[in-house]
Design brief:
This protein is mainly β. The chain contains 3 helices and 20 strands. β10 and β11 form a beta hairpin.
């Protein structure tokens, strides 16, 4: 059932995702709106919410571990030469309003708040579109505007000294199964070969489902992929891969990721065909 705080996304009349705008979460998890559960058209859930291995993984959304030193990811903060450290530095993304809301998507305004001050204002645009009778696409755009009077910068554990941990930005915590999902791009296979690399698209294939991710703008495609399959299944687009990303006062950072959600295990050709169709819509 759709409620004012939890609209349901529908494709061809079928529910495929619930969007929670005002989650009741402890500050340590960096409370923020998220999509969960997200399902295939056949009803298979392909997201997880606060799994035991990472309580701060919240379905599909935007999470950034370091905005000018504030943690909008949740959990501990990575400190150079010290490691993961518990701080009281967590921010929260607060839903302000829907500018548009339809069964197949919405446009939302959010405020990123930390230490009692608003750092960023976000416009989030989400749309769900049918591709075939077994696949649909989630089109997710976020625009972050620096509303302070000073420059801000976005970092990651990687930019703070932890190699290979450039997470932060769009992030999808996928369904965990007994067997780790397969992951592949147009030219590579396996976590070690696709993580921290750029690729036009990236597929995560579970037991009866496949997710295919693609950056839908030139700037988004420049961001390498953050990929985990062995420890847990998750895919994100890395905003701050090797160095911090500056956002001047009044400037806006924009990223757009399109994800195919398909029933069945797609091969490389099938994944490529569906993501091409999804991005061209």
């Amino acid at each position: 059932m759709t409620t004012p705080d939890s609209p349901v996304l529908r494709v061809a009349g079928r529910p495929v995702g619930r969007y929670v705008t005002r989650p009741e979460l402890p500050a340590r998890l960096s409370p923020r709106p998220y999509l969960h559960p997200v399902t295939t058209l056949a009803g298979t859930a392909v997201t997880e919410l606060s799994p035991a291995d990472h309580l701060h993984h919240l379905g599909v959304g935007v999470a950034v571990p370091d905005v000018e030193g504030f943690n909008f990811w949740g959990g501990r903060t990575y400190v150079r030469d010290q490691g993961p450290t518990e701080f009281d530095n967590h921010g929260a993304q607060r839903h302000s309003s829907f500018q548009l809301r339809d069964p197949d998507g919405f446009v939302e305004e959010l405020r990123w708040i930390a230490a009692g001050a608003e750092l960023l204002r976000e416009r989030r645009t989400v749309a769900a579109t049918e591709l075939t009778d077994t696949a649909w696409a989630l089109d997710f755009t976020f625009s972050l505007t620096n509303v302070t009077s000073a420059p801000l910068s976005i970092g990651s554990p990687a930019t703070n000294g932890r190699p290979g941990a450039a997470y932060g930005g769009f992030f999808w915590r996928a369904r965990k199964e007994d067997r780790a999902p397969d992951v592949f791009t147009p030219s590579a296979d396996g976590e070690s070969e696709v993580h921290a690399h750029r690729a036009d698209w990236l597929a995560l294939a579970g037991s009866t489902w496949t997710l295919v991710f693609a950056g839908a703008t030139e700037q988004t495609r420049r961001d390498p992929w953050f990929v985990r399959t062995g420890e847990y299944p998750g895919v994100g687009s890395s905003l701050a891969h090797t160095e911090r990303v500056p956002v001047a006062a009044g400037d806006t950072l924009v990223r757009r990721v399109v994800t195919v959600v398909a029933d069945g295990r797609l091969d490389r050709a099938g994944a490529a065909a569906l993501i091409r169709k999804a991005v061209s819509l």
